[in-house]
Design brief:
Elements: E1 6-10, E2 15-18, E3 21-24, H1 25-28, H2 37-43, E4 48-52, H3 55-58, H4 69-80, E5 84-88, H5 106-120, E6 126-128, H6 133-142, H7 153-177, E7 182-188, E8 191-194, H8 199-208, H9 211-216, H10 227-232, H11 237-244, E9 252-256, E10 262-266, E11 277-279, E12 284-289, H12 302-313, E13 317-322, H13 328-347, E14 352-357, E15 363-364, E16 377-378, E17 382-383, E18 390-391, H14 393-404, E19 444-447, H15 452-464, E20 468-471, H16 481-491, E21 495-498, H17 512-533, E22 537-542, H18 565-580, E23 585-589, E24 592-593, H19 601-610, E25 615-617, E26 621-622, E27 625-626, H20 627-640, E28 644-647, E29 654-655, H21 656-666, E30 674-676, H22 698-709, H23 716-722
Parallel strand pairs: 1-4, 1-14, 4-5, 5-6, 6-7, 7-9, 8-10, 9-13, 13-14, 19-20, 19-21, 21-22, 22-23, 23-28, 24-27, 25-30
Antiparallel strand pairs: 2-3, 10-12, 11-12, 15-16, 17-18, 26-29
Helix pairs in contact: 5-7, 6-7, 7-11, 12-13, 15-20, 16-17, 17-18, 19-23
Length: 723
């Protein structure tokens, strides 16, 4: 009887040296100080975990001195939780400071660490001595990203063979203690495609991609196309002969496949962004993601690559990393595509044991391959930006896959961006429905068709492949219970996003009845209707529920005290919504600005400046909110199942005057043209959060505002754009 497909878990634990700087992902994600993370993993039903027992953390100063204290506690807890550990000994690292991967002693030193680990923890029976040796060799020896920063084939190939030799020696040392210990050998697996002109380079890279597994399986003999290449670049023949013994052939081949793993080479480089340009000394060409090219879809992706690996090696396989740094819907689509592809291949007879959800607590700065410290965080099943790691939809999916082997969510009715027309450098004029995975994809219902926020949601839902209907007041009057019931019955949404409401803050003082009808009565009616049908609801509140006297940014638990009619309407709406629908998601935000409307504060300021006039702005302190960030972050939170009140504004409080000056300077105007508007005491309704900082920094948002608009603001063109 065929064993059920398992869901494994993985912790991003890289300790990478960049120049003299060490990056430790366990520290940067906070996992280092949270032993309770192991209980969170167990609650998901995960029973096998890729866990660090890293050389750099145990013997950082000398191979003769070890400190196992952190690992003692963690590995004991894993045993108590009945979780089997796959011990990782070197994860993208170059080793401690007293060695490096071009050091001839490196393999013996790692094997010494392996022996120490095996003797300390004889219960461990699964090991990955060197994670992704081919990938690490490329990043350390060919591209120069990580220590020892080699940039040629000689350091690249010497590092690769050193890593494979270290794996052999480590497994020999481990098996002296635990004879049945198994090697779970991981590496990235992609493929290179090309134009006919560059087919020779593609063939070269497609042979190269198998090197780490070929070496460990004893396949690189004198007949292998890379035997002579390795010798020609200074690799010792004795090391190649050692690997021919194949006594460390992988017991399980671990495949890590990413959307960037497949490449397309094209000598017509002007067709591609400059960051893709490169060459090999013979030809200059662009090296782009193959998924962005009009290639047959069946030849791309995890199923195609896994099939190649199975046919080449006929050894047990596991997906040892399934991760996608993107919006939450795309992360979920990627995980489920891999799970479903693996299930299909198992039905064909491939021995694939598991899929590893990666990384359980996210990653930091992998968008720059750890070469920059930007604190760019990508969540996994848990988002660590909250006071305690918060479950995302990936955690719910992981729990369901681990326990039942299946998971469903409305966003899975559409394929990921890598299978939608958005993936192409030149998009078709009309997107096909080939990416629909259901006859009628479930849809969101968005109110506020005439407003800035409603239109932004519609635009970004289109971009993210989220089917939706955008309704105006004529389509559904949220303050009319019958109108709401009819619309929900007609459209049958899986969630509702309410952006409708009264937005004229100043006019509300003389129009209280209309303001309360739209903001308060409507929100309450909609909340009750959604609650009765079990439909998730997102609705919006404001910083004006606060009086601005606190002299610090407000967090969610601060007492509300509105001083305006508009603020009162939003405060009462919050109460009614939560009373009717305790799972509703209420987002307090403020001071919208975005690239798709011409009525926000920045447009107004810059339009005035373009006429040669000065600008006055208030000293009141606010938290400006970039609409694309608000929409994307709130969609992620909705998909995660978020509820309750959240403050959602870009990080960084500022006065209206300073905000205007920041925008003015970026647009190429003189910021001294912005002056104070009066001398009234300044109020501070800035928003912070105690639930988790999910939004990007204001400085970043402002930079992207000007990039997204692509207008020469100080030019005459700005005058036309602002009209």
């Amino acid at each position: 009887m065929k064993q059920s497909l398992e869901l494994w878990g993985g912790l991003e634990c890289t300790v990478a040296r960049v120049r003299d700087d060490y990056r430790d992902q366990s520290l940067e994600t906070g996992h280092q100080d949270r032993i309770e993370d192991l209980d969170r993993i167990a609650e998901l039903g995960i029973r096998t975990l890729r866990h660090p027992v890293l050389w750099e953390t145990i013997s950082p100063e000398s191979p003769d001195r070890t400190d196992f204290s952190w690992h003692d506690t963690r590995l004991k807890r894993l045993q108590e939780l009945n979780i089997r550990a796959i011990a990782g000994l070197c994860h993208h690292g170059s080793g401690p400071r007293y060695t490096h991967m071009l050091d001839s002693a490196w393999p013996e030193l790692l094997a010494r660490h392996a022996a120490n680990v095996a003797e300390r923890y004889p219960h461990l029976d699964l090991y990955t001595p060197v994670n992704e040796p081919l990938t690490t060799a490329r990043f350390c020896g060919l591209y120069g990203h990580w220590h020892p920063h080699g940039t040629g084939y000689e350091p690249f190939l010497k590092i690769l063979v050193n890593e494979c030799k270290a794996t052999v020696l480590s497994m020999r040392a481990i098996r002296k203690v635990r004879s049945d210990a198994q090697l779970v050998q991981t590496d990235d697996m992609g493929k290179t495609f090309s134009t006919p002109t560059l087919s020779y380079q593609a063939e070269h890279e497609n042979q190269r991609r198998f090197l780490s597994f070929d070496l460990l399986c004893g396949m690189v003999d004198r007949e292998h196309p890379w035997w002579q290449i390795l010798l020609d670049h200074g690799v010792a023949q004795a090391d190649l002969e050692l690997l021919l013994e194949a006594d460390a052939a992988p017991d399980i081949i671990g495949i890590n496949h990413y959307l960037t793993s497949e490449r397309y080479l094209d000598e017509r480089k002007s067709r591609y962004p400059e960051h893709h340009w490169g060459g090999n000394g013979r030809h200059e060409y662009a090296d782009a993601e193959a998924v962005r090219m009009p290639l047959p879809i069946k030849g791309l992706g995890p199923a195609a690559r896994l099939r190649e690996v199975w046919e080449r090696y006929r050894r047990p396989i596991a997906i040892t990393e399934a991760h996608h740094g993107s919006t939450r819907d795309e992360q979920l689509r990627w995980l489920m595509q891999i799970w479903n592809d693996v299930s299909t291949l198992r039905d064909e007879g491939a021995d694939i044991r598991a899929v590893t959800v990666w990384s359980l607590f996210g990653t930091v700065d992998w968008n720059s391959l750890l070469t920059q410290r930007n604190d760019f965080y990508e969540p996994g099943p848990f988002d660590v930006r909250a006071p305690e790691p918060r479950k995302t939809v990936l955690a719910h999916a992981s729990e369901s896959l681990a326990k039942t082997g299946a998971f469903d969510h409305p966003v899975l009715d559409r394929a990921g961006w890598w299978r939608r027309d958005i993936r192409f450098y030149k998009r078709p004029s009309k997107e096909s429905r080939a990416c629909w995975l259901a006859d009628e994809p479930r849809q969101l219902l968005i109110t506020g068709a005439t407003g800035t926020l409603g239109r932004a949601y519609s635009r970004l839902c289109d971009f993210r492949g989220l089917n939706h209907v955008l309704l105006s007041r004529q389509d559904m009057d949220i303050a009319d219970a019958r109108s709401v019931a009819d619309a929900l019955k007609c459209h049958r949404p899986w969630a509702v996003i309410n952006t409708a409401g009264y937005v004229r803050v100043a006019e509300a003082e003389n129009d209280r009845k209309a303001c309360f009808r739209e903001n308060t009565k409507g929100a309450g009616i909609l909340a009750k209707a959604c609650a009765d049908l079990g439909i998730p609801l997102v609705t919006f509140s404001s910083d004006l529920v606060f009086d601005g006297s606190l002299e610090r940014p407000y967090v969610e638990s601060d007492a509300i005290n509105p001083t305006t009619v508009y603020g009162e309407s939003k405060a009462e709406a919050e109460r009614r919504v939560l009373e009717a629908h305790d799972k509703a998601l209420i987002l307090r935000t403020s001071a919208f600005f975005g690239p798709w409307d011409r009525y926000n504060f920045i447009w107004s300021i810059l339009n005035t400046l373009s006429k040669g006039e000065g600008v006055e702005a208030s000293l009141d302190v606010v938290s400006p909110t970039y609409v694309p960030d608000l929409v994307n972050t709130s969609l992620d939170l909705l998909i995660d199942g978020g509820s309750g009140i959240w403050h959602m504004a870009n990080i960084g409080e500022t006065s209206w005057r300073d905000f205007a000056a920041m925008a003015t300077e970026r647009a190429g105007f003189d910021p001294s043209l912005v002056t104070d508007a009066g001398d009234l005491p300044a109020l501070n309704t800035a928003l912070s959060t105690e639930r988790g900082i999910l939004m990007p920094h204001l400085e970043s948002a402002l930079d992207r505002f000007f990039i997204d608009n692509e207008i020469e603001w100080s030019d005459d063109a700005m005058k036309v754009a602002a009209e």
